Amino acid sequence: MSDNTVDPGRRRFLTGTATVIGGIGASFAAVPFVASFQPSARAKAIGAPVEVDIGKLEPGQRIIQKWRGKPVWILRRTPEMIESLKSFDTGILRDPESDKSAQPKYAKNSWRSENPEYLVLVGVCTHLGCSPTFVPEPGAAGMGSPWNGGFFCPCHGSKFDLAGRVFAGVPAPANLEVPPYQFLTETRMKIGADKENAT
Ligand code: FES
Question: What is the number of structural domains in the chain?
Answer without folding.
Answer: 1
